[in-house]
Structure formats: structure tokens, C-alpha cells
Amino acid sequence: MPETVKTVLAESQLPRHWYNINADLPEPLAPVLNPQTHEPVTPDDLAPIFPRAVIEQEMSTEREIGIPGPVRDAYRQWRPTPLYRARRLEHALQTPARIYYKYEGVSPAGSHKPNTAIPQAFYNHAEGVRRITTETGAGQWGSSLALAGAMFELEIAVYMVRVSYEQKPYRRAFMESFGAHCIASPSDTTAAGRAVLAEHPDSTGSLGIAISEAVELAAEREDTKYALGSVLNHVLLHQTVAGLEAQVQLEMVDDYPDMVIGCTGGGSNFAGLAFPFLGEQLRGGRKVDFVAVEPAACPTLTRGRFAYDWGDTGHLTPLTKMHTLGSGFVPPGFHAGGLRYHGMAPQVSHLTALGYIRPRAYGQLECFAAGLEFARAEGIIPAPEANHAVKATIDEAIRCREAGESKALLFNLCGHGHFDMQAYTDYLAGRLSDEHTSDAEQAMALSGLPQV
CATH classification of 6-13+68-110+232-446, choosing from 3.40.50.300, 3.40.50.880, 3.40.50.1100, 3.30.420.270? Predict the structure, then answer.
């Protein structure tokens, strides 16, 4: 019998619920605060920008939250996603490690992002919302919400970080093909964007700026809401469909991860894979090493401060306690645009502070090198964001080889790089460099943290 490479589930095995790690936290999250009063936010505070069902999920402490039938029906277009055993990569590395990857690039948008775009569009449509505004970095989230908007007959407006808007024209074309309106951020369409352009006319933009623009636009009209592609509790909740599937798939091959690895920008793809396993550990199950990998040019977990901060540059959002580089921080224009966010998901930040998650940072050159090594062995070109997880996995596999250990390594290949070939072209031509953030830049951004 040939050795299994791909473990697949039937559509009937698609999870019927999402997993909420808030139910199992050893210490509760710090409350989200109203920036004016510094009191915990209420559902009414969030109602102008989110539908009621999403607000309830954001604040829930129930362990299991059911996936609505129409959402499961939409998921069936690509879910369950395959779990691969990277046997060719193992052979190339001559490692005794058992390498697995959950491949989320099989979705229509090419990444994990539809896992939350679909339910957010569903809940908005169910409550009579006509239009959703959002931001996007690399374009994976904007592409996914554009897809979801077409499925649920919603108008979608996407503020795309300017450097990515210019680097990734095919992502813009993808969004527009599904009927979304894509605007380079910072833009002159909002007060937040105009303020940035007045001070920095050549700004490359940031996710924090794009969030400000999208939130401002959503607050102007009663028929419009805002959707976020990462960071918030309900987003990480929706992404756990990937980890729940992976648990069943690993059981089918009689294995269990010693280490779970994911790239982290806002935290959603890492949490989506890791949280079901971490929740099992918190309930007394097997101990697993959880590694969150970020870019050295935007080192939120490794060099940021765990403090209350705004989620956006224009200070339109509530205050959340998270690892942050400061809401005014504008990261360099490296190619992993989905990881260029000044903050980190409160749940991921909290669990990192408690010692359950180990962060790690890499430069973009070593990540592209790892991505090509993976591609030449496994036949899939990863998105630049996913290359960070690939790099960490290869490093761990080499450590296993040197130590003679056979560990099971599981990582989230959260998207393919088919829209990112210019980045690979630039890398292969030697036109990329490692971007750096100085201590002075970080100190300046952190000096603007709110006093709470």
C-alpha cells in the first residue's frame, strides 16, 4: 500500500459548530473599552458597525456555536479542505519529523479568509444590511468578502492598503470581478484618509489606516456595516472550522501534533488551526507547542507591548488589550501584506502573555527561500504570508534531524501565491531586501498609546 499523502473528509463530516476558546481560557480576556468613557463596551456601542448576531458571538463564552445551514452550504464549495503529509519535503530535508499541512488555498479566493467572510456576509444579509465596508492588506480578505458579497447579494467596498494596491493588481481585478469596489488607502474619500494624505502625501498606507476609512464609511449610513477579516473574537471563532477538521483528519492517520505553527498578522489563520488543539490542552489534554510566526519588519508579538490600544490609526475603534506596535505605526512595504498590522488578536495576545504561545519573527528573504524550497518539493507555491509558517516548520524539521527526534509538525498553509508572482519574480531577480523597523520608530508609535 502506498503511503498516504492527502487525507480528505466527506462533506457530511463538515463541522456543525465553531469552537470558542473563551470558554476554556484560564483567565478571562481584559474587557474591550469605550475610548471615551474607558468603561467596557456594550452591544449598543458596537451596533452601528456590526450586525447583532456578530456582536453576540464577539462577546460569547459558549464553547460551541452552531454554524448556520446556509453557511455550511456555502462552505461545501471547498470544505472540508485536505490535510497533506509533506512526504516529499520530509525526504528533501532528510528529517524524521512528520510534517502535515492544512491547505486552505483550495477555497475560491485562494486562502482561509472565506471561512469568516461567508458567515459575516450571511449575518449581515439576514439583518437587512445592504452594504459592507472593509479593509484589506494583501487582498486575500478583500477577495473573500467580495466573493461572499456576491453569494449574499451585498454591495462591498474595500479599502486596500496602497502599497498592496500597487503591488497586486490581479487581487484588485479579482475583487472587481465579483462586483466589489476597491479603493487605494489612504484615499481622499474619507476624513481619516485625507488627514493622512495631508501629512504624508506619499503614504504607502497600513491596515490601521484602511480600517479607519472603512469604519468611517460604515458609520455614515444606516444600511451599511463594517466587517473585519482578522483580530476580533468572532473572526477567530469562524476560522476554527480548519482546526476542527484537522483534528479528525489526524485521528484518521493515527497521529497528533507535537507542534502547531501558523503565520500571524492579525492572528486568524494561526488561531483557526491552533485553538481547537489548544482548547483540548486547556481541558487537560495532551501538551502541544504552539508557534506564532510574524515578519521581523512588523514584530507585533516579539517586540510590541501588551497594552490597550486602538485597532485603527484614526482612533475610531474601541480600545482592546493586545500586543501592539502603536496605532500610528506604519510598517515598511514588504510583500507579506496580510501581516502588516500594528496589533494582534486579543485572544492570541492574551494566550501569548500567559505563556501558551511562543512567537517568532523572520525576515522576508529567508521566508521566500523557504517558500521556494517547499514549492519545489510539494508542488504548491505559498502566499508570502504563509511562507513564514513554512520557514518555521522547515527550521523545526531540521532541528528534529539534528536531534534524531520524530516529532509531528502541523502548520497552516493558509493560501497560495498565484496572485503574488511579482513578489517571487522580484525575489528571484535579487530585487527584494529585508525591511527593518528601528527602535526609534517603534518608540515613537508606542508613545501614543492611550492612558488606561
Answer: 3.40.50.1100
